[in-house]
Amino acid sequence: TVRDTFLIDPAVILIVVGVVMFFVTFCGCIGALRENIRLLKTFSFSLMLVFLIQLVIAVLGFFYSDQTRDALGKFVKKAIVHYRDDLDLQNLMDYIQKEFKCCGWNNYTDWSWNLYFNCTHGNPSSERCAVPYSCCTPVPGETVINTMCGFGVQTQKYLDANKSIYPVGCADRAVMWIESHLLLVGALTLGLALPQVTPHTPVLNSCYA
């Protein structure tokens, strides 16, 4: 629903990654079993190439953070526009908003991009000026989720809306999360990078894995 081209279809990406992984591990496994120098060199070169690609992506993401943020913003905007068109997309947006305690990309009024939540006077939808329930702050002891808790919120000012929903946009929340988890992000990055640059155990182990 939100992708621009067929090439960024999640299924296509998973297939391509799977093919690459099969090729790399095949070269390492057969190269070790047959003691084939060419296959082992191909295996080593492939690992180095994958590592360099990851490094380039990380560097570009760091130096072009504004462009990365704009790209994510376009994705989220499309996700908001098509929120009611796809159940999986709807569940994804709800999960993101509940986990990050945010609403919309910039703020809660972004939900006016959606046909159903649009806040114009001519909108006949019963959800006009509303936001999804995933924007709402949880009520202590509530066992049944009130899916109408966000109705009419877009007509309220920030301070009033803050009483019932998370008015902060997911963009700011994501930045805050990264800044507060820099040690975790750095440790994960280092943990992924070290096995790729340190000497490997005998490639034969990959056959039994």
Automatic annotation (TrEMBL):
Pfam families in the cross-refs: Tetraspanin
Membrane-topology annotation of the record: Multi-pass membrane protein
Transmembrane segments: 12-33, 45-64
Gene3D superfamilies: Tetraspanin
InterPro entries according to UniProt: Tetraspanin/Peripherin, Tetraspanin_animals, Tetraspanin_EC2_sf
SUPFAM superfamilies according to UniProt: Tetraspanin
Subcellular location: Membrane
Keywords on record: Membrane, Transmembrane, Transmembrane helix
Family: Belongs to the tetraspanin (TM4SF) family.
Record's protein name: Tetraspanin
Taxonomic classification: Eukaryota, Metazoa, Chordata, Craniata, Vertebrata
